[in-house]
Amino acid sequence: MNKRRFALAAACVLLPLITLALYAGITRIDPNSQHQVGDRLDELNGVAIYYNGGVNSVQGRNLTTDGYNLGLRYQCVEFIKRYYFERHGHRMPDTYGHAKDFFDPKLDHGSLNAQRAMLQFGNGGLEQPQAEDLLVFGPSLFNRYGHVAIVARVEQNSLEIAQQNPGPYGSSREQLPLAQHEGRWSIEHPRVLGWLRLAPREDPEATVAVSPATP
Q1: Cα–Cα distance between 70 and 92 in angstroms, integer?
Q2: What's the CATH code, domain 32-198?
Q3: For residues 180 and 157, is the Cβ–Cβ distance under 8 A?
């Protein structure tokens, strides 16, 4: 009986580890013969979006000529940091972190996220998302790092995002539903945490009027 219990306990410990190891290995493989890693798939305002193959594939670290860390090629974080750097000359004080780390849940709605030098808004607050906002998705069962994208266009009931590394068969563009209820704006996706926005250049410490996010 003790041997059976020990075997069962060992299986309960090893099975999740084996599953994670298999997932990590599979998601580094590129199954899509239509593209090669590093292919230019799209662009947003002149900033390229590259193909990455498997979602956990990494092609080395991308640094600017003066050493600013743009992230791991061609992960989602690398695109958003490269976008703000190339288009706006924006450098984030904290140059590291997974996608989920770009949203700080401890901050008030509309306050400055000092790690990213951007204003932060929670999903379900009073501030409508805008084009060029940085959208942050929380982790999921098979993606513990989260995801980031950039809002490409906002319409009355939806918005379009531009993203890198959505998976070997994913699209660089995706439409998400947008709703307003009693003055509050919600992107209706279960993993959207909120969005970040560049502060006005004349006042980098600026904040907007604080409003609570959805309870």
Answers
A1: 9
A2: 3.90.1720.10
A3: no
